[in-house]
Write a sequence for this structure.
């Protein structure tokens, strides 16, 4: 990890100011303005953070501790800058499990209690008699952090009868998440209780916190302890909801990934810094979820040390943030796919075609047919008569263009077309408007919008499909009277480069050459919405509703008309079809005006 990336994170986390020095956090006891009482995290934001606090035992060790680091960390957690939705302590709150030690750390946690900030704790082996399991009875830990403390919590959902195991449900990213906090040694009854919690919440993704599960070698490679293997076998492996586990107890930090009985990944992490300077300086792990990016960015920082940065010596500065591969990393998780087995996202029903016939609609095609059957024709649902007929390239089978049951959940219809095209030689099938179709005469001089849903297969970049077109005009710029650039190029085409980037290339009515919008490289095997929008002066290409960079500023009005048909799924150079498209196409719509992105077919 280079210095610039570390500094970028610290600044984004509010730990670095605009200059080189680390900025001071608000003074203890004076919460930041964003942490005013009654204001909580944004639970609908797809970017949110789970804060994880490992062993704090040396900070609360009889008369040898210091609560200041933890106080600074808890103040930072409620500061509002990270959209932290929950704090989970991993056990060993204290060194000796004595009432006086719990009195001290209890006072620190009152900062969260007063703000009703949600958190969980669990007993580590230093908090209780380590030879006992969760049937040990009353202890100073239970007196200080038992279920009674959570009465005012908005996330607390209950505890096992003994009080040592608890579960919380917190809302983040627009959905609910389950967090289990299990004892140092959950008994058979404790594990059975945890299974019952999962059974009562069958659709919630679950995070397991426990004091001991895995340990790591010096390279950060984690493996189960003997007791951890038991917990895996009896609880984790058979419950697909558990996708992440967090434990302390051992050091150094580490991580690993195991496959559960359903064949899915479970990420197992150990975090513990009690062996570091000042008992770990109350370091926290920040698990920064980004549901849109399908990633969890993990960072490890000490807000207490960051607050003192101008006065720190070299040793202390090294502990502001941990940047080794076990402490500073990212997890790529396709949340929708990972949770599909127990919490599939419901697919909304098809939207009526009539609702897509907005003002100015010239043509609207949706490809509804039995999965796998060849396509003969497609009706224009706008009622304007721009129906499509099939053309099969020589030597190609009818199945090269067929209906498909695949679709984008955001498109209005619930089906698509599957094109199996290619070139050298040209093969596949495509659709074209009939010679008498009204839109064949259009030049769209006052503006237009062309939009479609596209999905590219994994083999799209094998060199056989570059410049495959999904929509365009038959007939070249030369036939429309244009002599600039290459007059043999189509008068209009929405194509894909060999790098799977969109290109909208058109001979405008008011230009002699080609006007081109370029997109960026696209992900394969994912549905994408594309739209080319012209307002009569300039054209903007949009991908998933967002404008791309390389849109020309030169005025370009309309589309030159060479007198040919419109094609879906074919590229025609100088009126010769070179290849058919390769991939899936969902709904396609053409509107005779510039649409605002809010008017796109995106659901």
């Amino acid at each position: 990890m280079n210095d610039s990336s570390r500094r970028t994170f610290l600044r984004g986390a509010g730990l670095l100011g605009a200059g080189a020095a680390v900025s001071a956090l608000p003074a203890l006891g004076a919460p930041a303005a964003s942490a005013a009482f009654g204001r909580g995290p944004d639970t609908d934001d797809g970017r949110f953070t789970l804060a994880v606090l490992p062993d704090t035992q040396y900070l609360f060790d009889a008369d040898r501790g210091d609560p200041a680091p933890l106080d600074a960390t808890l103040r930072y957690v409620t500061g509002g800058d990270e959209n932290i939705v929950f704090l989970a302590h991993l056990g060993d709150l204290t060194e000796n499990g004595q009432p006086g030690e719990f009195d001290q750390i209890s006072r620190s946690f009152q900062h969260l209690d007063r703000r009703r900030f949600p958190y969980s704790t669990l007993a580590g082996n230093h908090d209780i008699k380590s030879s006992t399991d969760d049937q040990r009875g009353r202890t100073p830990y239970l007196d200080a952090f038992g279920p009674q403390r959570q009465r005012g919590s908005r996330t607390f959902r209950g505890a096992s009868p003994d009080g040592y195991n608890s579960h919380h449900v917190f809302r983040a990213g627009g959905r609910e998440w389950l967090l289990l906090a299990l004892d140092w040694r959950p008994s058979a009854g404790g594990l059975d209780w945890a299974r019952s919690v999962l059974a009562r919440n069958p659709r919630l993704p679950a995070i397991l916190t426990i004091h001991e599960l895995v340990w790591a070698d010096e390279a950060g490679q984690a493996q189960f302890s003997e007791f951890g293997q038991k917990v895996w076998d009896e609880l984790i492996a058979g419950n697909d909801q558990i996708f992440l586990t967090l434990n302390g107890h051992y050091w150094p930090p580490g991580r690993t990934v195991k496959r559960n009985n359903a064949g899915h990944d479970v990420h197992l992490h150990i975090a513990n810094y009690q062996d570091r300077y000042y008992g770990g300086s109350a370091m926290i792990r920040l698990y920064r979820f980004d549901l849109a990016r399908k990633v969890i960015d993990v960072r490890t920082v000490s807000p207490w040390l960051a607050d003192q940065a101008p006065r720190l010596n070299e040793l202390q500065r090294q502990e502001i943030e941990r940047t080794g591969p076990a402490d500073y990393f990212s997890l790529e998780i396709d949340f929708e796919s990972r949770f599909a087995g127990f919490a599939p996202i419901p697919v909304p029903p098809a939207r009526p075609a009539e609702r897509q016939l907005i003002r100015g609609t010239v043509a609207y095609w949706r490809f509804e047919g039995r999965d796998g059957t060849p396509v003969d024709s497609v009706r224009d649902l706008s009622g304007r008569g721009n129906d499509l007929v099939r053309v099969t390239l020589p030597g190609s089978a009818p199945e090269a263009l067929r209906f498909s049951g695949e679709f984008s959940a955001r498109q209005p219809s619930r089906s698509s077309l599957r094109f199996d095209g290619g070139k050298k030689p040209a093969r596949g099938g495509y659709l074209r408007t009939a010679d008498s179709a009204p839109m064949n005469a259009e030049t769209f001089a006052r503006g237009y919008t062309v939009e479609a849903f596209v999905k590219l297969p994994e083999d799209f970049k094998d060199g056989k499909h570059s410049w495959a077109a999904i929509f365009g005009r038959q007939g070249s710029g030369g036939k429309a009277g244009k002599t600039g650039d290459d007059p043999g190029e189509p008068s209009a085409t929405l194509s894909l480069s060999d790098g799977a980037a969109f290109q909208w290339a058109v001979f405008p009515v008011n230009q002699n050459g080609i006007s081109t919008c370029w997109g960026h490289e696209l992900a394969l095997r994912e549905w994408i919405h594309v739209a080319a929008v012209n307002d009569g002066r300039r054209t903007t290409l949009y991908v998933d509703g967002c404008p791309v960079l390389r849109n020309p500023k030169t005025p370009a009005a309309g589309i030159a008309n060479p007198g040919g048909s419109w094609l879906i799924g074919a590229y025609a150079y100088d009126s010769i079809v070179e290849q058919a498209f390769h991939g899936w196409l969902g709904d396609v719509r053409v509107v005779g005006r510039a649409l605002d992105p809010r008017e796109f077919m995106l659901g």
